[in-house]
Amino acid sequence: MTRILGIETSCDETSVAVIAGQGDDVDLRSLVILSQDVHRVFGGVVPEIASRAHLTSVVPVAAQALREAKLELADIDAVAVTYGPGLVGALLVGVSFGKAIAFAAGRPLVGVHHMEGHLFATALEHRGAVPPFTALLVSGGHTMLLDVEAWGRYHLLGSTRDDAAGEAFDKVAKLLGLPYPGGPHIERLAASSDAGRYRFARPMLRRDQSPGDADFYDVSFSGLKTAVLHAVRAGTGQLTGAPTDGGSLNDADRGAIARAFQDALIETLVEKTARAASQFDRTRVVLGGGVACNRTLAAAMRQRMSALGADVFAPSVRLATDNAAMIARAGLFHLERGERAAFDLNAYASLPLPGLVDASAS
Ligand code: KG4
Ligand code: ZN
Asked: Ligand 1 in contact with 181 (CB < 6 A)?
């Protein structure tokens, strides 16, 4: 059994976790997530503030994670840390801290790609969420549709051409005069409204697309955002070019627009995921990333996949959003493969997903 301490500081949560196990038999011993609420005031994450907040919280957060796991640093077998992609200053805090404790404890260090962490998150809660599966990763910064043949063997089938799914939720929330981050607010509002008053086109989703087409799996949400903008302007009687004031919309209009936006986004993601599951004959679909907190998305995915005979695994809120448990879990996989990071490990704002294989090579 291996005990791993994971560290995640790529964006606005400072998180440290301890897991223990081997292979796919892994237990979560502790998970501490400190969300930096300060960014709400600014309507988005302010990188410099994020780095400073990580700096003040990473040590107490790690101490708390060890305490909850009833372990000392000396009991840890390895340290896993996110080294990209993300905000480079924020990442550097975790990377430097990870190096320091790995060095002090005389333990190996493993660098983890943030999105690979999201791929592993659901496996911590659902024993069935292991490869092969179709994965839909939807967060504030990324939207990726993958075929996961095995851990460490990923076919990237599609991604977003512009805004990430979470980013679309956040921008639309802003247009509607809702607080940041917008996802949960949109979901709540959409639930209060019936479908039908507005209908936005499903972006990049057409029946005549086939697997060889570049847009068969890709998604695009900026057009949908513009459709919302026009609906908000029409609803508030504003002229094109005037500043948009979604705050002055009446509740019924705001709910109807939120509902139509969410319906279009969800149908698009669900259909693209269904295409991937059928093309690769997968019987499991795994969701990850902050947008996977959206219960309407998970329910729509379950309904669509039941027609294909596939099970859907969605993580709970604390494992869907950024957390260090998923980083420790992905770190264990790399550690078991004999991979170690050197003490000159750096942080990267962008970083290719490891283990990508050519879709035609399987
Ligand atoms: O994975 P995450 O915590 O951070 C990134 O790595 O980006 O994802 C945050 C994103 C935000 O855009 C937020 O609006 C979205 O996840 N989100 C949701 C919901 N909860 C969080 N989107 C839709 N519905 C939700 N219930
Ligand atoms: Zn994330």
From this structure: yes
Nearest atom within ligand 1 for CA of residue 10: 6
Residue nearest ligand 1's atom 22 by CA: 183
pTM, rounded to two decimals: 0.95
CA-only gyration radius of the chain, Å? 21
User: pLDDT digit of tens for each residue in the chain (362 aa)?
Assistant: 999 999 999 999 999 999 999 999 999 999 999 988 888 888 888 899 999 999 999 999 999 999 999 999 999 999 999 999 999 999 999 999 999 999 999 999 999 999 999 999 999 999 999 999 999 999 999 999 999 999 999 999 999 999 999 999 999 999 999 998 999 999 999 999 998 899 999 999 999 999 999 899 999 999 999 999 999 998 877 766 666 777 788 889 999 999 999 999 999 999 999 999 999 999 999 999 999 999 999 999 999 999 999 999 999 999 999 999 999 999 999 999 999 999 999 999 999 999 999 865 54
Measured from the alpha carbon of residue 115, the closest ligand is 2
Kindly report the protein residue whose alpha carbon is nearest to atom 19 of ligand 1.
183
| Alpha-carbon span 218 to 206, nearest angstrom | 12
- Give, using CA atoms, the residue closest to atom 2 of ligand 1: 290
Strand order in the sheet with 78-84: 25-35, 13-22, 2-8, 78-84, 109-113
